[in-house]
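A reminder from the course coordinator: this example appears on the midterm review sheet, so study it carefully.

Given structure:
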């Protein structure tokens, strides 16, 4: 496979259409179509399923996409290695995190030590972050993983043990000192989207207490949950990270909730020796 064919295949896979790939590559659509047809004919394979709205990858195409992404990541690492000989003066580190509290602490020190490299931070739930590490769309992530795997290199960073309820300042519970999980049964409980560690912890606490709230509202971000609680739409549970806007909501310890979340710094095992990723891990190591 030529570099041009690999680049074209990757563009079509990401865009989901020949026209979208042509636009991204600044070539004509017939050129893209011809290159893909020649590639499929050369190796007697079918990489895409064509349909009215575009294309989808076949199982063979999905496996090839994973290989192309690994190749692309390796090429970037080669460039970063050469640039690293200058003392990490350049490069680009793509970080993912489930929330700002932990990652910003690490990032602040990283920027103090290495002001040269470009850094981007993306916030998403735990499942999405894990998927983006596997697809090479992220270099490193700071989050609570839903499951472990041999493909990951992990540094334990922080252990969260305090799950608290949050209620509006005008909520009848706002003057209380604590609550119990079973008391949530009669409340509107606001939960995060599927894939969120906060949602998993809330559902686990309710299950262990035998409590099933009659009314549940799903909101797809931490900020959205906070805003909804502050407006009195419902209550929620969250890990107490010291970033709860206490001028807008009241936090209450949950006496019978013992859900533990471990925050890790994670990258793909095969990439742990990448200079810029290794530098991030070194900064994230707990002080002894």
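Designed residues:
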């Amino acid at each position: 496979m030529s570099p041009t064919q690999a680049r074209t295949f990757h563009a079509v896979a990401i865009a989901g259409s020949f026209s979208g790939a042509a636009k991204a590559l600044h070539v004509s659509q017939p050129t893209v179509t011809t290159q893909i047809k020649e590639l499929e004919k050369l190796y007697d394979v079918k990489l895409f399923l064509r349909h009215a709205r575009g294309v989808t990858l076949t199982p063979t195409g999905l496996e090839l996409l994973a290989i192309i992404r690994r190749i692309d990541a390796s090429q970037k690492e080669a460039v970063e290695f050469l640039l690293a000989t200058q003392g990490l003066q350049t490069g680009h580190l793509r970080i993912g995190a489930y929330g700002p509290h932990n990652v910003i602490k690490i990032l602040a020190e990283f920027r103090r030590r290495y002001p040269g490299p470009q850094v981007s931070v993306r916030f998403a739930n735990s499942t999405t972050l894990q998927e983006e590490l596997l697809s090479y769309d992220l270099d490193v992530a700071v989050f609570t993983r839903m499951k472990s795997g041999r493909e990951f290199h992990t540094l334990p960073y922080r252990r969260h043990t305090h799950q608290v309820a949050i209620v509006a300042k005008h909520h009848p519970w706002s003057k209380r000192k604590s609550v119990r999980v079973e008391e949530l049964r009669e409340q509107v409980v606001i939960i995060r989207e599927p894939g969120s560690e906060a949602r998993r912890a809330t559902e686990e606490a309710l299950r262990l207490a035998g409590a099933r709230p009659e009314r549940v509202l799903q909101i797809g971000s931490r900020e959205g949950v906070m805003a909804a609680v502050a407006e009195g739409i419902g209550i929620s549970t969250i890990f107490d990270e010291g970033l709860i806007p206490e001028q807008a909501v009241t936090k209450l310890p949950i006496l019978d909730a013992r859900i533990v979340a471990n925050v890790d710094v994670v990258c793909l095992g095969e990439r742990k020796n990448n200079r810029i990723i290794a530098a991030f891990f070194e900064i994230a190591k707990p002080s002894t």
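Residues 272 and 278 are 6 Å apart (CA to CA). The radius of gyration is 23 Å.
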